[in-house]
Hints:
- By secondary structure, chain A is of the alpha/beta class.
- Chain A has three domains: 2-62, 434 Repressor (Amino-terminal Domain), CATH 1.10.260; 66-170 and 301-330, 3-Layer(aba) Sandwich (Rossmann fold); 172-298, Response regulator (Rossmann fold, 3-Layer(aba) Sandwich).
- Helices cover 43% and strands 16% of the residues of chain A.
- The first copy, chain A, has twelve helices and twelve strands.
- In chain A, the strands form two sheets. Chain A has a six-stranded parallel beta sheet with strand order 2-1-3-4-5-11, sandwiched between helices.
- In chain A, helix 11 links the parallel strand 8 and strand 9.
- In chain A, helix 1 (11-18) crosses helix 3, helix 8 packs parallel to helix 9 (199-214) and helix 10 (230-242) crosses helix 11 (255-267).
- The longest helix of chain A has 16 residues, at 80-95.
- The radius of gyration of chain A is 26 Å and the shape is elongated.
- The first copy, chain A, starts with 10 loop residues before the first helix and ends in a 5-residue tail after the last strand.
- Mean pLDDT of chain A is 94; it is low at 1-5.
- At the A-B interface, helix 4, helix 5, strand 2, helix 6 and helix 11 of A face helix 4, helix 5, strand 2, helix 6 and helix 11 of B.
- Strand 2 (99-104) of chain A pairs antiparallel with strand 2 of chain B, so a sheet runs across the interface.
- The first copy, chain A, binds a DNA duplex through helix 2 and helix 4.
Amino acid sequence: MADEKKEKLNIYNIASEAGVSIATVSRVLNNSPSVSEKTKQKVLSVIGTHNYVPSSIAQNLSNRTTGNLIGIVCYNLKDIYYANAVSMLESALRRRGHHIILSCTGEDFLQKQKSIEMLITKQVDAVILIGSVFLDEYGNNAYLLNAAKHCPLLIINGNVRSDNIYSFYCDDFSAVKNCVAIMREKHENFLFLYDADTYSGNLKLNGFYAGMQECGLDPAGRAVRCDSDAASAGSCFNKLLDGGEKIDAVITANDVLAAGVLNAALRRGMRVPEDLSIVGYNNSIITQCTTPQLSSIDNGLEKLCELAVDGLSKLLRGEKIEGSTMIPPRLIARETM
Amino acid sequence: MADEKKEKLNIYNIASEAGVSIATVSRVLNNSPSVSEKTKQKVLSVIGTHNYVPSSIAQNLSNRTTGNLIGIVCYNLKDIYYANAVSMLESALRRRGHHIILSCTGEDFLQKQKSIEMLITKQVDAVILIGSVFLDEYGNNAYLLNAAKHCPLLIINGNVRSDNIYSFYCDDFSAVKNCVAIMREKHENFLFLYDADTYSGNLKLNGFYAGMQECGLDPAGRAVRCDSDAASAGSCFNKLLDGGEKIDAVITANDVLAAGVLNAALRRGMRVPEDLSIVGYNNSIITQCTTPQLSSIDNGLEKLCELAVDGLSKLLRGEKIEGSTMIPPRLIARETM
DNA sequence: CTGAAAGCGCTTACAG
DNA sequence: CTGAAAGCGCTTACAG
């Protein structure tokens, strides 16, 4: 009647209004066969009129079951790459009956730590980190090892080897290294443009250095960091050219930066790929949005997410899985090389 | 010792190992001042060595507090637009101490319904829908009204008027209508390309029809649906031209489609904007990735998310807010018009 | 300063 | 078929 305050209903309210015990209400909630059709209908009707929904929180506590919650910690959802990863993980996990608690942390180490602690506290069954492996000021990752004492930690695009931590990553080092070697056939003035110090970011950078050295090229000043937008990549590129540098081959740590370079080059009247080759990274939707279409390194994000979710299912069933899984990258040659 | 099975620790384990009652353990967990320094240290030490973390689920149940969970139901995270929305909501909500349960539903009505029910069950404090307003086969949205009986429903990019439902949207109808009027000054052969039947998708479409009619143009066959990728938009565009249609002005329901049209046009040797004007939608990062840069309609997503989170805070504090909030769109003219 | 007890919203053996 | 009671992992008045 007087639901002024519209308190949340509980099983006691329903029971008393239906004139039965809470045990009986619980039974109809759980479809127990041992309830007479008559009282079942009565209970169902008061549940219906009040729109009562039992608290799964309390149910889990009572049943000693988990909430089927999986924590996802991601670096930055505004980045198409991470958004795709979260999207794929979410649907694969949902299909298996899991629910997602999401936290995005950016580069803030403390936030990362807080997010993971929060997830543990929420009793998640596992946490999946996407490109979120950062080290504290002393260069260690104790927070990860600690978290892994509570539940499995799955890392996508990172590699930490420890008990109950499982890494899924692409060989980004070789990807860039090999890309340099391939482009070396036609080019000699390289530029590597990157924007983040993530685990895979560093792999790419080191791959670039290694590739340059292997080709007998001096990498000094040839790897430049810019901001995470196309305009910044473009102006970096312009600045170098205006400063007298020669550049005929650019590799970038993601496709947006590649698009920025492409735009800048076209505006300078450079012909792509005749005067300049460009290879982006992630093989994202951006590659479809430019003319000429961007070549890009595909690091198999979809595959990584699939492997991670499959692995997680096994872990949750009590099976063992490998501590680390690496997949090979693929260079997708389109029109900019 | 024998933590073979590594059962989750609870407050009883800690209490018995520390030789105190669970009440005392709880007190040190909650920083109660009334604990002697000595026993406090003892308890803290066993908590530390075992890496014990209390269950916030149980704490909330006991404290009669909520888990500060907000449900986000989004249409499709692979779409940059939605990813941005989730990103902004997540950080705004996290700053205010909320946590996010995320569910992506696509166009599947049943999934949408299931997701919302799951969130209610998880005792969320509110649910935010982003572009997720779909109707069932009979054209009604009873599932939303029902959900709103349990907690506030905030809708971004949709408009449902009912008790405890709050809508935040952009005037997409006028946006497209006005865009047609503006482009009409130089153009007469319009094409509107869209890919989804969402609430705002329909507003845009109707805005196009209204704009055409107001300009005395026949919209028949001038609004075409394609798939959600650039290639599909491009081939739609090509097919029409190859079929003999004249087109000199294109408006699309998002920027990816606009990029697809731009690519196709450039490949046909059309000059943009001399021969063809193109206006995308969402003013996303894609607009920065093409040459020439895409003009686009900005529907103020960031503002909508801000307003929604502000509104939510008020609701949670018991204040009242408007049932619906509309913001005006802005046409961002760049190089394709 | 500390513990026994009741309670949060549920479930389920155990009796009847 | 149904209810009283114990229990899930916590917290907090109430006694001492």
